[in-house]
Automatic annotation (TrEMBL):
One of its GO terms (molecular function) is adenosylmethionine-8-amino-7-oxononanoate transaminase activity. PANTHER family: ADENOSYLMETHIONINE-8-AMINO-7-OXONONANOATE AMINOTRANSFERASE. This is Uncharacterized protein. GO terms for biological process: biotin biosynthetic process; gamma-aminobutyric acid metabolic process. Signal peptide: none annotated. SUPFAM superfamilies: PLP-dependent transferases. InterPro entries: PyrdxlP-dep_Trfase, PyrdxlP-dep_Trfase_small. It comes from Trapa natans (Water chestnut). The keyword Transferase applies. Keywords: Aminotransferase, Transferase.
Length: 179
């Protein structure tokens, strides 16, 4: 499904691939949307379909499976290593969504010097072990797909832990050089 690829199934984003014939019919009727007197009329036309989509999404067994996968996976000691033992980052998340902000002493007011490229280094370490993460400065964002297996979640946790250990060593090295 295309919509799951756009947001890893975390947000109700939709996209549809259609043939030119279907696209032509949709385009020929597109001038009829937007003729309402105000935005409430537009919302009232769209809302029922949006609610149907949300209901289908919330009724999906995928949502329950993710919670089960995370609770089973969190029984492994390596899954909590990086949250408890990492002094160089604030790590937060819920379910499979995870954010990491690399800051000194876990304080948002003490960022690392930008020239150190801590986030980029972490991203490179993840890539070295076969996992891609979104890097934005010293912030890392992860939102893997809901359809991950327990083995894949364990592998994600393992790679994340290895990358954090390597990044922690790199930060120690950079701190010693800057003294």
């Amino acid at each position: 499904m295309v919509f799951q690829a756009l947001s890893s199934a975390y947000m109700p984003i939709g996209a549809v691939l259609v043939s030119p014939e279907v696209s032509d019919v949709i385009h020929s009727q597109s001038n009829k949307l937007g003729r309402e007197k105000n935005i409430l009329e537009q919302v009232n036309k769209i809302a029922p379909k949006f609610q149907e989509g949300l209901k289908a999404f919330s009724d999906s067994p995928i949502i329950g499976e993710v919670g089960c996968k995370i609770s089973l996976s969190s029984k492994h000691p390596e899954s909590t290593f990086f949250i408890r033992a990492c002094p160089l980052a604030q790590i937060r998340g819920t379910g499979l969504i995870l954010g990491t902000e690399f800051v000194d002493n876990k304080s948002p007011h003490d960022p690392y010097p930008p020239e150190w490229g801590v986030g980029a280094y972490f991203g490179a370490q993840c890539e070295k072990h076969g996992m891609l993460v979104r890097v934005s400065g010293d912030n890392i964002m992860m939102s893997p797909p809901f359809i991950m297996t327990l083995e894949e979640i364990d592998e994600l946790i393992s790679i994340y832990g290895k990358a954090l250990q390597a990044t922690e060593e790199r930060v120690k090295e950079l701190k010693s050089q800057s003294k």
